[in-house]
Amino acid sequence: MSESFDVIVIGSGPGGYVCAIRAAQLGMKVACVEKRETLGGTCLNVGCIPSKALLQSSENYAETLHAWKDHGIVVEGVKLDLARMQARKGEVVGANTKGVEFLFKKNKITWLKGEGRIAAPGVVNVAGTDYAAKHIVIATGSESMPLPGVTVDEKRIVTSTGALELDAVPGHLVVIGGGVIGLELGSVWRRLGAQVTVVEFLDRLIPGNDGEVATQFQRVLTRQGMKFRLGTKVTGATAGEDGVTLTVETLKSGKTEELKADVVLLAIGRRAFTAGLGLAEAGVATDERGRVKADGHFATNVPGIYAIGDVIAGPMLAHKAEDEGVALAERLAGQAGHVNYDVIPGVIYTAPEVASVGKTEEELKAAGIEYKAGKFPFMANGRARAMGSVEGFAKLLADKTTDKLLGAHILGPDAGTLIAEIALAMEFGASAEDVARTCHAHPSLNEAVKEAALAVAGRALHI
Length: 463
Description:
Elements: E1 3-10, H1 14-25, E2 30-34, H2 41-46, H3 48-66, H4 82-106, E3 110-113, E4 116-120, E5 123-126, E6 129-138, E7 142-144, E8 157-158, H5 160-163, E9 172-176, H6 180-191, E10 195-199, H7 211-223, E11 227-229, E12 232-240, E13 243-250, E14 256-261, E15 263-266, E16 270-272, H8 279-282, E17 305-307, H9 318-332, E18 346-348, E19 353-358, H10 361-366, E20 371-377, H11 382-387, E21 393-399, E22 405-412, H12 415-427, H13 432-436, H14 446-456
Parallel strand pairs: 1-2, 1-6, 2-3, 6-17, 8-15, 9-10, 9-15, 10-11
Antiparallel strand pairs: 4-5, 5-6, 7-16, 12-13, 13-14, 18-19, 19-22, 20-21, 21-22
Helix pairs in contact: 1-9, 3-4, 3-6
């Protein structure tokens, strides 16, 4: 055995590296396995961070072309330098991944470079060398979900990874999947000049989100130039030198037709990544979807082996994985780590943004829970008007009897930041009245949240 550790974490994504850091802070000897040349996992390298860099750059470009003149700013001769935009994205990624490497050194965490495999309970093999560990944490994340009949080459038919690396704006981009990843990356390339068509199997966008938000969100994206084919199934894709020919079937009518595209983005979801881990040989149980089975304390059925993040059940969100990593590290140190899964926010970083936390109206109705809803439009918010970003609304849901907050759904400017107020309120069991009686700065976007809280009791002031 080469070396022994208290904890070996397999995977250095947000869940893995945060778990490693917290365990090291608590005095444990920690190693983290990562096969990439850089730390940070999918999120920092080919996911959350580079996509947000391109989202910001493309939004800046679109605003320069279309919005600045309304502010009295006239810019002539605007042109796109996609190579520089992509280079900046790389710089952002590099700064973040180097930041994680710095934190590893600061906290004396050993980076075991190579592909990790659980050789036996208490033993992790990395690039042919065995390392002993009292605790093994599986944090290997997820990968893009494949679709039969659609073969990814990351050139013409791409996953999110390839969609982040295009060196030219496609004339026509077809996105398969109307979820978060497809809409975010579709909006990037739409702003930069591509025609974008979203093909979605269901009859709505962003499944799992509030239905009213989804409907209004589609209208907003349609006004931005995106096209939608809902209730449509993709049955095949053929890539050639001049683009891709998709075969699609309209579910309601059964009609089959061809759809031409320069680039196709496959974004129908993600699945747990466990290839090469040796789970079956180690006796680690997985569920019907290939996820590692773990109990409420992240323990698998094999003593000493744990799992967190996308590789286990629950929303595939970086911040969910981070919270699980911290909670697990603290439990391994004898403390009481805990994650409140009822208060995990989700954000779609389009423009405007979509953010949610807690239950949707559909979920409350299905559960037979009586509730009150309060809604306030950004059109009536002074700060939103000053910004020139008035689309959308904030909606709060509260128990009809107790007024306890049950959920919040925001479509509008900086929704991803605004949702944090409600997440904190829900974490502490606050009521809609608690939020309504909290003084909010004026003029601020947060006032829309306060007004929505007031609207729960039918007493909004500015509508």
